[in-house]
Design a protein that fits this description.
Length: 339
């Protein structure tokens, strides 16, 4: 075992594993959103964000660095992947290889237990699982903080799928201090995320393209002006299990992000009429006293957040609304781990 210095950090390095290494990670749902980067290449976000890992939904990834390979081989759901998705994986592995000072290519096999149209972005769980499996396979022993920084390079939100439960990603001022940590374990609060799938089609502009447009909206600076207050308020609400405060700030933050999206150049309008119906109904149930609120990511699907005692009732009501093709139910989940 040797110690190496990289980017001002001391990293413990063993020899690369002679066996494939497998890791699991969950996707996460952001309560305070990440939208826009200060540095697009390093994925340094414009603002800090807060999220919850989603148990039950997972990516399982196995990595093996094989000196006999002439390029990386990426298999997803049993199929060989080429093109942009494979290039993104290889670009990420280049960061891992540079870190470790190793130049072998890798065999990567990955599987999601949720379909691409589940209304949950798979890039967070994908790059969190890949960061853990690849760094371990290449012989790096990274702390949770280093792992979170590394996962961020693959997909910003992936840095929040490394720590357990309820997670805060500090925007930071550089690559060194932009990482996520757990603010509370999964058992802290029995929230349920009912993911309402409204449209399974592919988005015209995904998150990476959307982040690049955020700065073109005149509303982005207004969204950013008070985002740290929303992070602080949402963190306190989570820690105190104060659903009312949580609900207000989560919905406000989601609406602000969508206002930025709609006013960017090119405008991004992700909601469908059915999205609006779910949001209206959630508001009306909350007025009746049900602890329920909603948030929407870069797509039309709605994440309905509800305290577990009311989850079955809310799920039943949602199932009667038009245009919802499926509802996935997820609870607070653990961080990334090796198996
Ligand atoms: C709307 O992490 O998917 O879900 O870094 O380009 O992979 P990349 O973007 P990504 O962006 C997530 C955007 C969001 C909000 C959030 O999860 O905070």
């Amino acid at each position: 075992m040797i110690k190496i210095h990289f980017n001002h950090n001391e990293i413990t390095m063993k020899s690369p594993e002679s066996q494939p290494v497998t890791a699991i990670a969950h996707p996460n749902i952001a309560f305070i959103k990440y939208w826009g980067n200060r540095d697009q290449q390093l994925r340094l976000p414009c603002n800090s964000s807060l999220s919850m890992n989603l148990s039950g939904l997972e990516t399982r990834t196995t990595v093996y660095f094989d000196p006999s390979l002439h390029k990386d081989v990426f298999i997803l759901g049993g199929e060989r992947i080429t093109g942009a998705a494979a290039e993104r994986v290889s670009a990420f592995l280049n960061v891992v290889r540079e870190f470790a000072g190793v130049d072998s290519y890798a065999q990567i096999e990955s599987q999601n237990n949720f379909p691409a149209g589940a209304g949950v972005a798979s890039s967070a769980s994908a790059f969190a699982a890949l960061a853990l499996a690849a760094s371990t396979a290449i012989g790096l022993e990274l702390s949770e903080k280093e792992l979170s920084r590394l996962a961020r390079r693959g997909s910003g939100s992936a840095c929040r799928s490394i720590p357990t439960g309820f997670v805060e990603w500090q925007a930071g001022s550089s690559d060194a201090d932009s990482y996520a940590w757990s603010i509370a374990p999964a058992q802290h609060w029995s929230l349920v995320d009912l993911v309402c799938v409204i449209d399974k089609g592919h988005k015209a502009v995904g998150s990476t393209g959307g982040h690049a447009l955020a700065g073109t909206s005149p509303l982005q600076s207004l969204r950013l002006a008070h985002v740290q207050e929303r992070v602080d308020l949402c963190r306190s609400a989570i820690l105190a299990r104060d659903f009312e405060t949580f609900a207000e700030v989560v919905e406000e933050d989601s609406n602000l992000m969508h206002a930025v999206m709609r006013t960017s150049n090119t405008p991004l309008h992700y909601w469908l009429p059915e999205t609006e119906v779910v949001l209206w109904m959630v508001k009306s149930w909350r007025k009746e006293g049900i602890p329920v609120c909603a948030t929407v990511d870069a797509g039309p699907n709605v994440h309905v957040l509800v305290e577990s005692a009311h989850a079955n009732w809310v799920e039943q009501q949602l199932s009667r609304l038009p245009g919802i093709s499926q509802i996935y139910k997820a609870q607070p989940g653990d961080g990334a781990r090796l198996i």
